[in-house]
Amino acid sequence: MADKPIRIPLTGHGLFDALIADFSDIADPAEQETARARIWDEFGTEGAVLISDMASFSSTSRKIGVCHFLKLIHRARQTVAPIIAANNGALLKCDADNCYAFFDRTDHRSAVVY
């Protein structure tokens, strides 16, 4: 008897994680399309995603040290959060030197970028 693959949750949302895990196991293109449509029907939305990333961050942090590294991360988060909020975005996550935001209207995302 073959062991079932271990499924590590992607997001912590039970239905979403189950649908994505099932989708990843489907080989047939027609079945993939059916699964994709179900995921979209349950969770789909339109908008824009913004990902900020500091240029040369890894190499700079190795040269300058951890305290400077943490200061740069702090400043970046303090800078982007109010700009995103002021443009009707939602700050989804900050991870190291990256920040991820979602805008339900693409013109709001454009205002942040420019």
Q: Order of strands in the sheet with the most strands? A: 1-3-2
Instruction: Name the overall outline.
Output: extended
Helical proportion, percent range: 55-70%
What is the straight-line distance between the termini? 57 Å
Would you identify the CATH architecture of the largest domain?
2-Layer Sandwich
> CATH class of the largest domain, anyone?
Alpha Beta
By CATH, the topology of the largest domain is Alpha-Beta Plaits
The helix-strand sequence is HHEHHEEH
Low-confidence stretches: none
Q: What's the multimeric state?
A: single chain
Number of beta-strand segments: 3
Q: Sheet bearing the most strands, described?
A: 3 strands, antiparallel
Rg, Å, rounded: 19 Å
Continuous helix count: 5
| Average of per-residue pLDDT values | 85
Question: In percent, how much strand structure appears in the residues?
Answer: 15-25%
Structural class: alpha+beta
Q: What's the CATH H-level superfamily name of the largest domain?
A: Nucleotide cyclase, GGDEF domain
Number of domains in the coordinates? 2
Write a concise keyword list for the protein shown above.
Alpha-Beta Plaits, 2 domains, extended, three-stranded antiparallel beta sheet, 5 helices, 114 residues, alpha+beta
